[in-house]
Amino acid sequence: MNRNNVATREEEFSDSDGYDSVSGSSTSLADLPASFWIFSESLRRRELAEMEMMKSWEALLCEEKRRTIEMEVKLTQILVQLHRTIHPAAMSPEEGGPDSTGGLFLSKSKNRVGEVPLFQF
After folding, report:
1. pTM for this entry
2. Dmax (CA) of the chain
3. Taking residues 14-39, what's their average pLDDT?
4. Total Cβ atoms within 10 A of residue 105
5. Where is this region: Disordered (predicted)?
């Protein structure tokens, strides 16, 4: 057999992982740090992507909570206004509620000098 044929046949039957029959070591061990680096980088990128998704999710939740609170504030203001309309005694004297004598006045913007209370209790 020709020497080239022997070398070719040895290459055909050699392990695919890069085992070197002369030195007895594997060339894949030399690639281990690079493989580990690639693996760790892919994990880092995945974790970063997950954190970005969580961050955007939290931002959406915060925005929704802010809108909910704003709506609750508006509803509360409407209820307070309705309560004041139905029960004027719940208002302070500055807002037209009862004064210290127990009378109900219109709001200060509508009061005239010497005006008498609407009701006396």
Report:
1. 0.42
2. 131
3. 68
4. 22
5. 1-28
